[in-house]
Amino acid sequence: MVAVTEPVAVPRDPRRWWALGALVASMLVLGFDLTILNVALPTMAVQLGAGTAELQWIVDSYVVVFAALMLPAGLLGDRFGRRRMLVAGLAVFLAGSLFGALAGTPALVIAARSVMGLGAALVIPLGLSVLPSMFGEDERGRAVAAVSASMAAGLPLGPLVGGLLLDHYWWGSIFLVNVPMAAVGIAACLFLLPESRDPSAPRVDALSAACSALGLGALVLGIIEAPERGWDSAVVLGAFATAAVLLAALVARERRAVRPMLDLRLLGRRGFLCNTLAATLGTFVFTGLLFLLPTYLQEIGGSDAFGTGLRLLPMMGGLMVSARVSTALAARFGPRPVVTSGLVVLCFAALLGSRTETGGGYGFTALWLTIAGLGFGLAMVPAMDAALGDIPAEESGSGSGLLMTLRQVGGAIGIALLGSLVAGAYGARLDTAGLPAAEAEAALESVSGAHAVAERLGLPDLARSADAAYVDGMGTTLAVCGIAALVTAALTALLLPNPRPAAQRGGAGAVVPREADDRQ
Questions:
Q1: Nearest to 307 by CA among 297, 316, 319
Q2: Cβ atoms within 10 Å, residue 277
């Protein structure tokens, strides 16, 4: 007979919904910045002379710093005050945005994005870590959905506002627009968010943080440089070897620590592991698509920056709709069928998108983007809610930091790996026969470079070859995404626990301990 235990009541702070509004404002800034940059990548390729590898680093420098420093940032908030660190993170993000607006070379933009990643590392895990302490189980799903939806709400606004700015101003305006939004987030946190902390949280381990940052950076470096240098080059193999040594050292050090920064014991909880895997895969595909699609829509589809923002709306709309519905579905049926169904839908969308052709109209693209958005929301929101619910209350800061770190690692690898797959396929397929060496190198750098060479030399066949090469590479990456989503769906269907609402398990008010849920 299973013992019945009383649930622990979470104090109902009357300011909790106002506090949630402060978190939503903060997350909105980060969601806004993510897509406003991606829609500007083709413009930056032309105006800054950035190649595909530099564009990947402009996006990935933010994500790598973000993922590497998220765990120590969560612990700093636990020890010294989550509201204080949230405000500090938004201030750093604001400073990085000002730096980016004034940058004049790809290298300086990469540096500015790294500073912004540091700010984001302070904001996101702390924003999530306060939810379990403010909301009970009956409200936490809605709170997680609101925070996730706030980032999703920033996603469609980013391309639209970014498109308007790029059509009238220089590319640096996409960074400058973050300044007032970050200032609003700071004011909201100061006036609405109550302070919370956990003085017993473990201290930040500088050596572990260094191993995490350098190991992840080396891994991304190897993936990004492989298409140009070759997967068997000394630089690429050295980067992978360095990443393996540093990340292995990180795991070994954390396993021996009495109070680890990276609590690997959480990965032994089946529910946390499977839900984190599903959320990481969704982030892998989502960030990779946001990197690839603007180039396709602008350079091949002929859209301007604002038109690209409009054409991304079907995916964002599908994400927002399914994020709202998925919480209710998970409450009724449990997270396992909802997360698994979302991954299957995402697989279908990716395989459908892999059939895209250069001469196809936008209607087909809008169709598979809408389906992809629906799959993202169905999979990620209930997976994140269930993963957060599986973290012990005393480890909310480090646990949510681990969850978000793994998600952002998935995002960084998604941009690096999927971008490298496209770059490799594009370089192998593009016909540069007969071109002078300098023009051939410029054409191989990016689609925009090939179009510029084709226009300058009067070679329409080169432009058509570049379009076909890019679409071929994008089709390959979408097929990879579809297969990865299907494999993850099979794993969640087989392994993910499926705790049901209390009323369905044993009558009104009955509560089954988590140990019983984990055996389902």
A1: 297
A2: 21
Q: What pLDDT, in 10s, does the model give residues 345-362? A: 999 999 999 998 887 778
SS3 454: helix
The helix or strand, by DSSP H or E, that contains position 139, with its residue range, turns out to be: helix 137-168
Q: What is the largest CA-CA distance in the chain?
A: 81
Tell the residue number behind the tokens 């009104």, with chain if given: 508
Report the run of H or E that residue 232 belongs to, with start and end: none
Looking from the CA of 91 toward its CB, the CA atoms found within 13 Å total: 9
Entry pTM: 0.72
**pLDDT tens digits for range 424-473:** 888 888 888 778 877 887 788 778 778 888 888 888 888 888 888 888 98
The answer to whether 345 and 374 are in contact (CB under 8 A) is: yes
Dist CA 102 CA 32 (whole Å): 19
Helix axes 362-389, 313-333, angle to 10 degrees: 40
Q: Which residues contact 303 (CB under 8 A, 6 or more apart)?
A: 297, 310, 311
- String of b and e for 416-437 (b: at least 16 CB within 10 Å)? bbbbbbbbbbbbeebebeebee
